[in-house]
Design a protein that fits this description.
Elements: H1 16-42, H2 47-54, H3 66-91, H4 96-119, H5 133-150, H6 153-173, H7 192-200, H8 218-236, H9 244-265, H10 278-301, H11 309-315, H12 318-327, H13 330-345, H14 351-372
Helix pairs in contact: 1-2, 1-3, 1-10, 1-11, 1-12, 1-14, 3-5, 3-8, 3-10, 4-5, 5-8, 6-8, 8-10, 9-10, 13-14
Amino acid sequence: MSESSPQAPDLPKRLVSLDAYRGANMFFIMGGSSLFAALAALWPDCGFWQWVGSQMHHVSWHGVAHHDMIFPTFLFIAGCAFPFSLARQREKGRTTCQIVRKIIIRALLLVLIGIIYNNDVSFDFANLRYSSVLGHIGLAWMFAALFAMAFGVRTRAAILVFLLVGYWLAMRSFHATDIDPNADCWSMEGSLAGFVDRHVLPGHLYRNMHDPEGLFSTIPAIGTAMLGVFAGEWLRRGGVNAGGNKKAFGLVLVGALLILTGWVWNLDMPINKNLWTSSFVCFVGGFSMAGLGIFYWIIDVVGFKWWSFPFIVIGMNSITIYLAQKFFSFSQAASILFKDAIERWSPEVYRDVFNAGAYALTCWLFLFILYKHKAFIKI
C-alpha cells in the first residue's frame, strides 16, 4: 500500500475499488446531487457550472444526464459483485441449490421492500405501486445471477445480445394505440413497455400511463446486470491483483466500445432511461464499466487508496442509506447538528451549499458509526 488509510474492520477480503465505486455512485443519492446543484447556482453565468447543474436532474424523456446513470450504475455494480459473492459461498461449502434459493429469496425480498418503500405499510392492494427501484434491481440481478450459474461466458454473451436486440425489435415494431393512435413507439403513450405496464401490472403506475421501473423494461435491465457480472468475472480472473493494468485497460476499452455502440444505436432507438432502451443499456453500461476500470486501476493496481475511504464507508452500506433516508429525517438531524453554525458563520450566498453539504455529512456520519461498529446491513 503506497498511501496510508484508516484501519478497516476485520472483514473478508474485498475488491476495495468496487466498494469505493459503489459509494461514489451512492454519494449523489445521499445529498451529493443537491450539493453540486447548489454550487452550480452560485455561478449562473458560467457555462461549465450550468452544465454541472443540469446533470443533477433527470432528463424529461429522451437523452441522459448523470442523474439518470446512478440507478443503472448501481445495478451494474450489483452484477459485478456477484462473482465474488458466488466464490465466497462456494468456499463455505454451499450447494448450488442453496445458492439459487438465496438468489431468489433476495430478489423477492427486494421486490417486497420496494413495495413498502413506495407505499409505506398499506393494505390497499388495488392502489399500490408495485414497481420500484429495488424491485427492478432485484429481478434484473436475479436473472443475471442465475444465468451466470447456468451458462458459460459465450452463451451468456449470446443471451445478452438476444435480450437487447429482441427488446429493440419488439419496441420498434409495436405502436400502442390504446391512448393515442398516433403516438410514436418511443413515446410514453405509444411504447410497448408502457402498454405492458398498463395492462399487466396491478395497482397504479408512477406516471399513470407508464412506469420507469415497469415489468417489460426489466428485460433490458437484465442486460445491465449481466454487463456487471462480466466485469466482475474479468476482475476475478487469475486473482484480483493479477494483471491489473491489463484488466483496467480492458474495462476502459470495452466501456468505450459500449458507449460508441449506444451512441450509434441512439440514431434509431433513443437513449431513454424511462424505457431502459437497449441503447441506454450500452451507453450507460459503457460509462459504468470505464468508471470501474479507472477506480480499479487507481485503488487496487496503483494502490492510491486513502482518498477513497469516505466512499468505502458509503459503499459498504449503500442499501442502508437508500432506505434510511425514507424512514429517518436526516434533514432534521442536520439542522440540529449544523444549523446554528451555518447561520452564524456562513455568508447568505453560500447558505444553500452549506445546507446541502450538512445533509450529506449527516448521512455519512450515520454510515461511519455503522462502519466503526462493523454493522453492515445486507439484503
